[in-house]
Amino acid sequence: MPQMPGKKIVLTSDTTMMSSYHGGVMLGFAAIMPSRALPDWIFRKLFCPPVAAAADGSAEMAPCGMRKVEAALLEAGFSREEVMVAHPDHLDRAIGPETKIVGITHDDPMGKIAVREVEDIIGRGPPFNRTKFLELLRHPLIREHRPKVVIGGNGAWEVMGEDVFVDHIYLGEGESDFPEICRKIIGKESVPLVIRGKAVLGEAIPVNRKATIGGIVEIGRGCWRGCAFCSPAMRTLRHRPLEKILADVRVNLASGQRDIILHSEDFFSYGYRDGKPDEKKILELVSAVKQLGPKTIDVSHLSLASVHQNPELLRAVSRIVGVGRDQNHMSAWIGIETGSCRILKMHMPNKARPAKIDNWPEIVRNCYRLFAEESWLPVASLVLGLPEETAEDVIKTTELVESLKDYTGLMLPLFFTTIADTKLGGRKGFAREDALPEHWQLVGLCLEYNLRHLKKLHSLYRERMTAGPVVHAALKGINLMADHLLSKYMKRMKRGEPPN
Ligand code: SF4
Asked: Does 233 contact ligand 1 (Cβ within 6 A)?
């Protein structure tokens, strides 16, 4: 076959990012598993099957952030002939001697988000996401043609200080500066190793050209709550105009997506002003999306404080979406982070606003009661080992989780990781050797909670999934195996001992 000249700018990622996840984006969590825990083909078949490829080798679906960068490049004057969102299995159709830039979007390229917990519990080497990312960097065509490799996306910070084959680390928003950076690279001008992209206005966030994985549609960026460990906290809160959001929904539906996830750091902050959610705007948004006819609608993230501030708004959203009628549930990622009001005051003083921070455990419990009544499934994160956390603080978190154990959901205990450019960016991350018996008890409790609810979550989640009966049967089998294999670690941790 004659060699392709290649596209000037190739946007891509590895298969843990460029996957349909069988229509169930939560399956993507499996990418944090150690790559020796499962044979590669089973991982690919069950958890991260690649997105469909078009005849020219481009990806039919891509992460939302990559689609935004593609749209920004096209709006900045690059032509379709120069820019391609390439399928990772078909890079031979994209990368050639003319390729100057390979832009990789990643959420967790080095597997730093949860790798230490997983390594401690299961062992068995590096996670799939790191393995696949490093494989992509070693792709023969990248080695042969030596385009400049630029890593961007939420996880780009993980590559800082790592000895990997990356020419530039792009932190921040792509729409602002990435097109100009590309021009400079193509023009052989000097470009720093670390680039910090400026934030753009909500109106300037472009409309995607093709479908996104999971049907993710961005409604806004940033968060005003300012938690010290969090990177969205460093970005000003902005929202996109309704028409642009609907245009992204239409692009997805026209490309065959059936499910839509409205993405922001807090759905109920859409149009936030005068210290409260803008009820009218939120209901207008949900009604307008519903009218376009997706099979299901979800929101990516919620602030529990916003839910607590106006529970009737969540009920109204449920009614418009048709939970219990048109779809069996809605889901959202939430941040509980801790049960200790002392730690909240220290690192997350705005977490509960406008409610009082001392009521945090009660706020969380009230929200879970509401979620259960309205069939919303929370995927909650906890942060363990924040600076100055004591055994008493951890016990408070354990008591809170204990009080939620009958509510269906997932509970993800994450060791505190220092993310570059956050308020706690200079502090040491939390590691196995720092863990107190109380930390292990909490991780054990979360594992017990997850194993208990996983089967129900799988059955509820099926309505979004495109997988056939064989994949579902295999997932059920893995579920049973996980029950069996992980229970010994769970028992040890619940006694306050490390898992192994
Ligand atoms: S509320 Fe969530 S998104 Fe906002 S700063 Fe805190 S952790 Fe980050």
From this structure: yes
pLDDT score for 172: 92
2 confidence band (pLDDT: 50, 70, 90): low
Q: Which of 377, 304, 309 shows the shortest CA–CA distance to 339?
A: 304
Residue 327: pLDDT above 80?
A: yes
At position 157, the amino acid (one-letter code) is: W
Q: Is 166 buried (19+), middle (13-18) or exposed (0-12) by CB count in 10 A?
A: buried
**Statement: residue 114 has pLDDT above 70:** no
Predicted pLDDT at 122: 64
Beta-carbon contacts of 245 under 8 Å, excluding residues fewer than 6 positions away, are 217, 218, 219, 262, 285, 289
Identify the H or E element spanning 488: helix 469-494
Q: Work out the mean pLDDT of the chain and round it to a whole number.
A: 92
Measured from the Cα of 233, ligand 1's closest atom is 5
Exposure string (b/e) for 98-137, b if CB count within 10 Å is 16 or more?
Answer: ebbbbbbbbbbbbbbbbbbbbbbbbeeebbbbbbbbbebb
Task: Label residue 465 by pLDDT band (50, 70, 90).
Answer: confident
220 lines ligand 1 (CB under 6 A): no
Residue scoring higher pLDDT (128 or 67): 67
Rounded to an integer, what distance in angstroms lies between the CA atom of residue 449 and that of residue 176?
Answer: 42
Above 80 in pLDDT, residue 176? Answer: yes
Spans of all domains in the chain: 9-197, 202-494
Cβ(383) – ligand 1 distance below 6 Å = no
Please report the atom of ligand 1 found closest to the CA of residue 223: 4
Q: Is 222 a pocket residue for ligand 1 (Cβ < 6 Å)?
A: no
Could you tell me if 382 and 336 are in contact, meaning their C-beta atoms sit under 8 angstroms apart?
yes
Query: Which residue, chain included where needed, has tokens 């200790």?
Result: 340
User: Residue 88 in contact with residue 57, Cβ under 8 Å?
Assistant: no
Q: Does the C-beta of 227 come closer than 6 Å to ligand 1?
A: yes
When pLDDT is cut at 50, 70 and 90, the band that residue 309 belongs to is very high
Atom number, ligand 1, closest to the C-alpha of residue 305? 1
Is residue 226 in contact with ligand 1, taking CB distance under 6 Å?
A: yes
The fourth-level CATH superfamily of domain 202-494 is: tm_1862 like domain (3.80.30.20)
pTM of the model: 0.94
| Closest to 155 measured CA to CA, from 130, 124, 138 | 130
For a pocket test of ligand 1, which of 113, 227, 235, 303 has the largest count of ligand atoms closer than 8 A to its C-beta? 227
Q: Percent of the chain having pLDDT more than 90?
A: 72
Contact of 119 with 40, CB cutoff 8 Å? no
Q: What is the pLDDT of residue 180?
A: 97
Does the C-beta of 225 come closer than 6 Å to ligand 1? yes
Nearest alpha carbon, ligand 1 atom 6: 227
Query: Among 223, 300, 386, which is best to mutate for testing ligand 1, by the most ligand atoms less than 8 A from CB?
Result: 223
